[in-house]
């Protein structure tokens, strides 16, 4: 029983520390209709944008509670190329090593309302298709998420 209480207390403290560092993110997509290799169907496009915004938000939860990340996504070129599918109404994305993802972002990191960092960067991962990926193969943004993770670790978390 004592061991169970100790484990429960440890789990509670771990959850409290996660809750204590819960930064936020706001993501704006600028002219998403011009993004490359995005689906032509509006519902599919909206689903990808929602998934991408959710990933920025997930990364921002690792920030301290007093920090906010504002991201404007200016351009996106998804890994691979869209090709028409004769068997489906929607396109399929064909992934080749020469079709890595890129994304142009403008960002501002605020701490207690004051600007800590800001800039505009071109994110790209030329090894995205050939390196190990921690996201499932059925995730339509698995290469882009890895690229965002790397950028977040290198530029945002280190501040």
What does this structure look like?
- This protein is of the alpha+beta class and 159 residues long.
- The chain has one domain (23-156).
- Helices cover 33% and strands 28% of the residues.
- The strands form two sheets. It has a four-stranded mixed beta sheet, with helices on one face.
- A hairpin with an 8-residue loop joins β3 and β4.
- α2 packs parallel to α3 (142-156).
- The longest helix is centred in the N-terminal third of the chain and has 19 residues, at 2-20.
- The radius of gyration is 19 Å and the shape is globular.
- The model is unreliable at 4-19 (pLDDT under 50).
- Residues 1-22 form the signal peptide.
- This is DUF3016 domain-containing protein.
- Keywords: Signal.
Rg (CA only): 19 Å
Fraction of helical residues = 25-40%
Strand % is 25-35%
Structural class: alpha+beta
How many DSSP E strands? 6
* Spatial separation of the terminal alpha carbons: 43 Å
Quickly count the helices.
Answer: 3
- Silhouette: globular
Low-confidence stretches: 4-19
Number of domains: 1
The overall pLDDT, averaged over residues, is 81
For the sheet with most strands, the description reads:
4 strands, mixed
Adjacency order of strands in the biggest sheet: 1-2-5-6
Order of helices and strands: HEHEEEEEH
Organism: Zemynaea arenosa
Signal peptide: 1-22
Protein name: DUF3016 domain-containing protein
Keywords: Signal
